[in-house]
Amino acid sequence: MRWIRKINNPILREIAEYVMITLSILLMCVGIYFFKFPNNFSFGGVSGLAPAISRLTGMDAPTFTSAANIVLLVLGFFFLGKSVGIRTVYSTVVMTLVLNWMDKGIPMKAPLTNEPLLDLMFAIILPGAASAILFDIDASSGGTDIIAMILRKYTRMNIAMALFVVDIAAVVLSFIMFGPQTGLLSILGLVVKSLIINAVIENLHMNKCFNIICDHPKPICDFIINELHHSATVYRAEGAYTHQEKAVVMTMMSRSEAIRLRDFIRQQEPHSFIQITNSSEIIGKGFDNV
Questions:
Q1: Is residue 169 within 8 Å of 43, Cβ to Cβ?
Q2: What pLDDT, on the 0 to 100 scale, is given for residue 290?
Q3: Helix runs in the chain, H state only
Q4: Which residues sit opposite 213 in a β-bridge?
Q5: Cross-strand bridge partners of residue 278
Q6: pLDDT surpassing 70 at residue 47
Q7: Percent of the chain with pLDDT over 70
Q8: Which residues contact 260 (CB under 8 A, 6 or more apart)?
Q9: In 3D, which of 20, 30, 139, 44 has the Cα closest to residue 89?
Q10: How far apart are the first and last CA of the chain?
Q11: Quick one: which H or E segment has residue 117?
Q12: Closest residue by Cα to residue 69 from 122, 138, 164, 141
């Protein structure tokens, strides 16, 4: 996440990352335990396979989730490295403890509501958003997320497509074990989950790109450099109608900084022409590096 990467102190940055991991896991557990498990939704992950495996073997869903995560952690350390492995271990331990506590302290004998589609929405949105945050800080909740991260590392798949490929097995099993209604809802859940993860990750990396056509670029550049602490590129252009010489200022920044720059230009150069576009991937100094 952008605000975490801006923390210069490595210890504080590490603490902030683990705080975000913890909050993400708590959010994920709420979606899994209260909305996914009671409805037997199986649209991905070990937790998605858990209801079907529980029906087949008699093992309760939280126990199966814990056992499968431990096995897959070994793959994470081997293929993804120590840093990702340690974060995944922490995530898995927190998830296991929280799910077991919920199972004993807040037993769920039936779905939370009588509206399967309502439960489905929360079963998708909460874990999907949590997974996206984890992936963005090079962590995962364990389970099949580890396999997806391995696919992302060694293939050209993005994380959303890798998750879709890995989790399709859970959807097929849900058809066999719980019938067409649950299976169709699981397919819907898997597709929407992949879209949510992709959208959240892109949103976390979203930046604004400016092309500012103006007569007096210096005040704008001074504001960008001195107040926003970014740089800019200035080049000359000619108006097609007036044939007057114009300056074009090109720069990129975060959304909050973009609002400040836009308001400054409106006050200082009200006749400027401003083009603002979105970009979820900018590589270079001050942004993501290769």
A1: no
A2: 42
A3: 2-5, 10-31, 45-57, 61-80, 82-105, 116-136, 144-154, 159-204, 217-226, 255-268
A4: 248, 273
A5: 208
A6: no
A7: 90
A8: 227, 228
A9: 139
A10: 16
A11: helix 116-136
A12: 141
